[in-house]
Amino acid sequence: MTKVNSKARPVKTIEIIIQPVKNMKGDFIAYYQSDMLSCTYSVYFKDTIMGALALNAFYEMLKHNYPGQIDFCVEEHELQFKNQALLDILSHKS
Prior knowledge:
It is a single chain. The chain is of the alpha+beta class. The protein has one domain (13-83). It has two helices and six strands; from the N terminus they run βββββαβα. The chain has helices at residues 49-65, 84-92; strands at residues 2-4, 10-12, 14-20, 27-34, 39-46, 70-74. Strands 5-4-3-6 form a four-stranded mixed beta sheet, with helices on one face. The longest helix is centred in the middle third of the chain and has 17 residues, at 49-65. It is globular, with a radius of gyration of 14 Å. The protein starts with a strand and ends with a helix.
């Protein structure tokens, strides 16, 4: 998705995709694919307070390097996190 800011310069919405790691209960990967750089940034984290810190650091790194809106996209709709800090990050940053 692309938006236009007040200076008529397109601003791309960054989507951080979150998926569970196969056969690793409570482990997740969040990633962003940069078309411009032809690369993928990612972070592997657990459903814990330390995982919340890792996901937040990943979000802040992307926010610092890429202008525009950053949204989280959870791949599996039935995916439920147990850690409240992780839930707070996902709800406040999207």
